[in-house]
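Two entries, shown back to back:
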Amino acid sequence: MLIIDCDTYIGRQAASFEEATPEMLLGAESAEGVSYAMAYSVKARTYDARCGNDEILRIAQKYPRILPVASVDPREHCRFESEIARVANLGFVALRVFPELQGWQVDSLLFARIVNACAEHAMPLMLSANATGRASEIVRVAKHTSNPIILLNVNYNALAEALSAAAARPNTFISTQYFITPGALEIAAESVGADRLVLGTNCPDFSARPPINMIMLSELSDEDKANILGGNLARIIAPQVRKLGQTLVESADFSNYEKRRLRGPKIDAHGHIGPWPFPMTDCWAEDLEKLMRKCGIERAIISSTEAIVNDFIEGNAVLARELEKSDMLLGYVTVNPHQLEQSVQEMDKYFKSPRFVGVKLHPGYAGISIDSEAVLRLAAEVAKRNVPFLIHTWGYSEPLKILKLAEEYPEMPIIMGHGGAVAWREAIDVLGKTRNVYTELCTSQSHRNKVRETISAVGYDRILFGTDLGLFDPAHVLGIYEEAELNAEEEAAIMHNNAARLFCL
């Protein structure tokens, strides 16, 4: 199988813990069966475009499985068009630009000049379309051209717009890295065609496995899967590859990907039921069961979307009715610190049923800090009931707020929902300072090695398997755990036994 990753990089980032070397990139990609990595130089993005482009070309000449991607910074004003002409002639397979990092706008005349230069030299163009309005702006500026444009980093908030943009302009493609909602791939393929979708991963910062999992475990045909994994990109970059004097071959061993599959029993500690306003399939009890069976999940503990984002009393009632339809689902009682009395009543009401086994708090939607007095008062009530307390923790300093709560109520089990997300290393520190805090690691940002680094730092007894089931397709988050190459003891604990013990299943 030919697998091409359009979104990788080499070099040192100021905010990174380690330098991304060619060996690191190729090792991470080979482990998931990726044949070729289209890579740009961090130096070209952040320091000097021509210098960085020359660097990545030298690396590509030494490592044929790395296909060079150039970059320019239009703030230079007079030099970037000649640089586009130069790299196109040298055989760079695409040009990538970074308006969101360099501080210029896509709706500017600078970007129009980039679009025109790429069209003149038949150079595929790649850039992020994760911000609201970005995909529409890109298409409006480039509508007079038919040169390939690849929209990167399209998350579920921006997916509907990106699909509309791709439908409006021929030869516009979308990277599937953040296609993580249930049915997103199938909906996109139906909307614009599977021939307009390509694989991108942001490796080696992120793991390549989750987006590959999403494609491999989708309901698309084998032909569509093969095209998204590599066939579409092979066609897009073919003219430039010929300039490099290369012929693309299926060079990686895809059996490595298969060997990492986690096939044992699983309990998902973080899920939801109810609608979300994104391109995705419905996620009620029957729909969740289908997703769970696909990934070998035997039980999931879920909360109500409505309870989190709107009305926690009505949402808990909806959840209770849905739980009656499935033996595979258990529930969290969602609470709100602003309404302590009603939250206590909700816990007293639903903990009479064995189908409810924990409490859920989303401080973001509730508009309150985890370390506030209101949350501490609510936590005192949760602690009396001797059930796990799942708290959404997303962003720097959020896990540290859990530390205060854990010290105040040392007997209450607390689950860091998302494990801090981008602050997952901060969450590791909290685990190391407590005995009653657990983590699960579902996020759309699948940072590479975070499961293995967590195990190495604090062991595996307080790591849970969580997927954000119902908002995310579990196939995506499963890839983060599979990447860690868990041994049999680690797999049994993390994927099943820790949650079974914690929730008394």
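entry 2 starts here
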Amino acid sequence: MPVLRVRDIWKNYEGTPLLRGVSFDVADGETICLLGPSGSGKSTLLRIIAGLENAESGCVEWEGRDISAVPAHRRNFGLVFQDYALFPHLTVAENVAFGLRMQQLPRAEVARRTAEALEQVNLKGFAHRRVTDLSGGEQQRVALARALAPRPRLLMFDEPLGALDRALRTELLEELRRLLRASHIPAIYVTHDQEEAFAIAERVLLLHEGQIVRAGSPAEVWDRPGSVWVARFLGVGNILRGEVIAPGEPFRVATPAGSFEARCTHEHRPGDVVDLLVRPQGARRSPAGNLRGVVVDVVFQQDRFRLTLDNGLYFYLNEPCAIGETISLEIPAGAVQCLS
């Protein structure tokens, strides 16, 4: 049973639709991610859910009740921003306690919850330090503790790790996953970074031009992107346009790069133009390969080599190739998927 329901949200920006009929649910204890490029409407949607902006139409429901007219401070949702939004003149404890004091809780309760929140984010012993003396990662932990202290019924994160370096992002992502699972608080996480999305979310919603164009678990979205735009945004492989030459089993498509067998769940006739997703993994060198090209670039990536051919396609091999070498690759049918 969903605790949060977002229904048919429309929002305009300078006369142009920014959000176009967005709907989704969040279950109790579930972490979802709104993933998409800048300008897709992710942060605006989050602010509408938080009560910081109004939609042109549609509604936000919590446990079956329309809360669209409920002020932000009465929704009891926690919000964590990229820029921390901390008060520089206050100590760590004073920042964390700010929301609790606004609720006019007893002093002892404020102190207890503040200490509890700081311990949750591994900042025990930091209570009396100035936030301006902390590192970026520590400041983001303070912001998270401040969101956790009032015991929110929903947590929302707006690009929370965008200002941190890669090592810190990885570390904080692991901590966030642990916290969310332990607290069982439902959460909405906004990012343009697919690695963050796949690492933290149980379900990913991809936004493009104000609409959800793909939704599913990280594994489902990666395995079946469903459209050329999603496949390109996620960078899951090569996109080729070709012509159907055999619509049955096996399904075959002729492209400028060669002829391929592909997985296809659509209805097609011979001569139909389709888009193929050709995964870079699984290719192997073979004199009788169905794809030939000249190697124009080779990059070593830890346990494999990424090679780029003169037709713009790229693949991963276990062994290196020489730049300028003409090679033949066998692309298995399982690595080719029809997107249209």
